[in-house]
Amino acid sequence: MAIIVDKEQKRIDIALSCKDLFIAKGIKNITISQIAQEAGVGKGTIYDYFKNKEDIVFEIVNILMAQFNATKEQRINEATSTKAKIKIFFDFFYNPDKADLREIFKEFVSISLTQSSKDIQEFLKDTHERYYAWFCAILQEGIDKNEIKPLAIDLAKGLFVIGDGFFISNTMKGSTQNIKEEITLHLDTIFKLIEVKQ
Amino acid sequence: MAIIVDKEQKRIDIALSCKDLFIAKGIKNITISQIAQEAGVGKGTIYDYFKNKEDIVFEIVNILMAQFNATKEQRINEATSTKAKIKIFFDFFYNPDKADLREIFKEFVSISLTQSSKDIQEFLKDTHERYYAWFCAILQEGIDKNEIKPLAIDLAKGLFVIGDGFFISNTMKGSTQNIKEEITLHLDTIFKLIEVKQ
DNA sequence: AATCAATGACTGATAGTCGGTCATTATTTG
DNA sequence: CAAATAATGACCGACTATCAGTCATTGATT
Predict the structure, then answer these.
(1) If both were cysteines, with which of A43, A84, A100, B33 could A79 make a disulfide (CB 3.0 to 4.6 Å apart)?
(2) Proximity of residue B175 CB to strand D below 7 A
(3) What is the dotted CATH code of the domain comprising A53-194?
(4) What are B61-117's pLDDT values in tens digits?
């Protein structure tokens, strides 16, 4: 009876159109009016597609992460050793091409910590569990192949969270230069300990 | 002259008086007027002692962390094994008595990620480095005593950040119940690997 | 009288709402 | 079948409520 818009697609379009604004200025320094202008729609329209400013950040992170993870899965499958696979898993935290994405991820974490609804927490939990299962599968595969000791599976959770740990720690200090070296050293050392000597 | 107030003490008094408000509602859901009322001063007075709302959170975290760490140093010195010392280091993240402090710490991290000034980043960097040095010293002591392998020192940074990692990861999911078990398992497993067999 | 502390009314900015308009499609009618 | 009309979702921006932060004034002390 009337115009029917692909709501999901438009949500994506709006989110992506103001991505650079978020990266450049940060959520606190942008107004909804600016976002609307950047997206080429009216202010009210923004609220037809998003609950609030934070919701836009969630959408941006979702879109970009999905894109990123599509290639990640492939790269992990191509890697041969468990160590190499695990390193790719943390690639996001130091890949120079992903600096922009990390900038938004920072906002995302900040929001998630203090302002996320039950819905969003549920979503985060699901996402987290899916990735953790994937991570465990990689480790288990290494164990089954006798590349690493069975004990390594007990390190899964602790290893899984070190990406976040390094990221938060470095971001809070304002020094994100050397995450790669830090993560690499840690993983190399862990692998020295858990690798099965042939 | 005129009335001379102990500015530093009053800053502390104001900060502590609204601590519970921050814990109960979170920074986003409190107004400066509420804070002023809770502290029993005028709104303008708040701005004589703090730059903004975020600044109050920094003060609260500083005060409470300082209190907490005073006892922490002692407890670490009392512990005999390196493993026990390291576990106490992460006590903050799961000690049931510190749930309130963690609630504010959450706000603190959230702010630090996206809104901290150069000054505050500098401060965070200093604090971080001091704690990291302490952490390394504990590990080094264990190495010198031949409790753990020399290699363990390369795990320092990665171990140091797992507290933050678990905290962020669990907080984002809204499940802070099992951090203790997770950290304990991780540390126990790491120590199985780095302990020197006698 | 000089000086510092405290204050709360005021201002500017902005998040979020809501009544109304417009464009498109469905339905009716000649 | 074409024109007229009805229905509806998309879109909008003026408006409102709220609140962070300021500053001119008052009050207290020596």
Answers:
(1) A84
(2) no
(3) 1.10.357.10
(4) 999 999 999 999 999 999 999 999 999 999 999 999 999 999 999 999 999 999 998
